[in-house]
Design brief:
InterPro entries: AB_hydrolase_fold, Peptidase_S9_cat. The chain is an alpha+beta fold. The protein is built from 11 helices and 35 strands.
Length: about 575
């Protein structure tokens, strides 16, 4: 690789992950990965004329599963996942103070509106019973407040005083709305005729219901009996998600996801009054609404996620300076076997020396028009990138999203193979390289096995052998996802069972495989077995198969220790220069 290319590839831009806002929208916190050898916690103060951030001292912040709860006094409660439970630490500029540990397979932190409560915790045992805890602001004791049957699904909402919690709960009886009065500890089940999307501090509900013409969105007054469905809310293209209410509880910010991009709408609670805020093409990650305005966590392909503010005129305050010129990204549509496939693209795949077909994780995932370090690293090295949202990706409607349910490695693999042939056809027969992460790594290796001569090489980050084998080895959350999406359903076609323990022997192109040693989503043993099968097939030389297992890394090995060097090695492999 030329010297200039290598230096650009090695440059590291920190990633901000797991953003959360305080209940009043005046503070925020996130995990900062890539800024040092270990991830850090970054706390934001949004009360002044300009957003300010500072690093909080804490040891051993894992990227995977860490939750941060910004508190109304500027402190941050960190929930750090461990093998035996969850460690709790309260972070401040003066240091890190341990709170203790809570058992349970699912623990969730909630910002507090109540000045007598630093933060709230929802702990679920065996998916059957949830307990609400309050963390006291001075002694930091965790006090049990209430318990109820089932597990909380989706967001929760507090009343204006921060004492009454509303949540959707799933149990054997289906979905129900639970109302918890924190002072008394009483919990009751409400049988609303809607599934709530958001509940204002004053009790007005934005929800969905199923009618003769399908699912509708509207406003519901718990004291009434019917759902009012304004046309403006039901004529939207894309997926609607509430973000935050303003401090008065009368205006609501909503995100509309259309494919790989986001739109921002602001509406009056209970009405059809909607206006759109013009944003650059990009993605809204989260939002909080404070006294100075609506704060967005916003990212574009040229801007890592950062906090930007919508002013009183509905304009987005300037983002932080861009990290460099570099190649620009564009959204392109490719013909697919079952309809158009949108892709995030860098460079010209028809003329570039090297082109990479990049496959996202999931399967319920998608590439977004956002900052993606591994795609940027490829583009900075002069590699053209086509990152498609094939069937199974979210953001393109129910039919597209559920096309691969019960058919992992079926319609989605068909789309990948179709795109690979189309790209090669536009390059005078020169094939693309494959790059995949997680489920996308599984899909990339399947593609390399299905058409051994259709690619130049294949890079797989945290792949698994098969849905069946992953179900046997994974944690409860992963097993539940596999069951929900019917991932273990067998496909009967010429390729046969989608099991890389069998199909890896068909791969004929060089393979680069990396897996975090602390991956709690997909055990690293899956990658080790894949490498063993590749080397034992007789089709590849030992020099054609590389395996890296960074000991301190989690599910994304590029985010762990040594991530910059691993990214540089990955890019050089894809480019064929190393």
């Amino acid at each position: 690789m030329p010297t200039g290319t290598a230096s650009r590839t090695a440059a590291v831009v920190p990633r901000r992950l797991s953003f959360q806002f305080s209940a009043d929208g005046e503070y925020a916190a996130c995990v900062l990965a890539g800024a040092s050898a270990r991830p850090l916690v970054e706390a934001w103060s949004l009360a002044g004329p300009r957003a300010r951030s500072r690093l909080m001292p804490v040891d051993g912040v894992p990227v995977d599963g860490t939750q941060l709860v910004p508190c109304a006094d500027g402190r941050v409660l960190a929930l750090l996942n461990g093998h035996a439970g969850h460690r709790l630490n309260v972070l401040s500029p003066h240091g890190s103070r341990p709170v203790g540990e809570l058992p349970g397979e699912a623990l969730r932190g909630l910002p507090s509106r109540d000045p007598e409560v630093l933060a709230w915790l929802l702990s679920c045992e065996d998916g059957e019973r949830t307990t609400l805890f309050a963390v006291e602001p001075t002694g930091l004791a965790c006090r049990e407040v209430a318990g109820f049957a089932g597990r909380v699904a989706g967001p929760v909402w507090w009343d204006a005083a921060g004492c009454s919690l509303t949540a959707t709960v799933v149990n054997a009886g289906g979905r129900r709305v639970v109302r918890v009065d924190a002072p008394s500890g009483n919990a009751r089940v409400d049988r609303w005729p809607v599934v709530p999307l958001a509940v204002s501090p004053h009790g007005t509900v934005l929800g969905t219901a199923t009618g003769p013409r399908g699912t509708v969105v509207g406003w519901f007054d718990p004291g009434g009996t019917s759902l009012r469905c304004p046309p403006g809310l039901n004529g939207l293209a894309g997926c609607l998600r509430p973000l935050a209410f303003d401090p008065t509880g009368t205006r609501l910010a909503l995100r509309v996801t259309e494919g790989a991009r986001s739109r921002l709408l602001i509406g009056e609670a209970g009405s059809d009054d909607l206006r759109e805020v013009t944003l650059p093409p990009g993605v809204i990650r989260a939002a909080g609404w404070g006294r100075r305005g609506l704060h967005l966590v916003f990212t574009t392909p040229a801007d890592p996620a950062t906090v930007a503010t919508v002013d009183g005129e509905g304009r987005l305050a300037p983002l932080s300076p861009r990290v460099g010129a570099g190649p620009t990204a564009a959204l392109k549509s490719f013909p697919g076997p079952a309809g158009p496939i949108e892709a995030v693209c860098y460079g010209d795949h028809r003329t570039a020396r090297t082109v990479v077909l990049a496959l996202h994780g999931g399967p319920e995932g998608a590439w977004e028009f956002a900052w993606e370090p591994v795609l940027r690293a490829c583009a900075d090295a002069g590699i053209a990138v086509v990152a498609p949202n094939q069937r199974g990706s979210i953001g393109y409607g129910p039919a597209h999203r559920h096309a691969a349910d019960g058919a992992w490695g079926g319609p989605d693999l068909e789309d990948v193979l179709h795109l690979g042939r189309a790209i090669a056809g536009e390059r005078d027969g020169r094939p693309a390289a494959l790059l995949g992460t997680s489920y996308g790594a599984f899909l990339a290796l399947l593609a390399a096995a299905a058409e051994p001569g259709g690619w130049t090489r294949c890079a797989a980050l945290a792949p698994f052998l098969s849905a069946e084998r992953l179900h046997a080895d994974a944690n409860e959350q992963v097993r539940a996802m596999i069951d929900r999406l019917k991932g273990r359903t067998a496909i009967t076609d010429a390729l046969g069972t989608r099991d890389l323990d069998i199909l890896a022997a068909r791969v004929e192109v060089p393979v680069f495989c990396a897996h975090g040693g602390h991956d709690e989503v997909i055990p690293a043993a899956h990658s080790r077995r894949i490498v063993e099968r590749l080397l034992g097939s007789g089709r590849l030389r030992p020099a054609d198969v590389r395996y890296r297992e960074p000991a301190g890394a989690g599910h994304d090995p590029l985010d762990g220790p040594g991530g910059a060097a691993l990214t540089a090695e990955l890019v050089a492999f894809l480019d064929g220069s190393a």
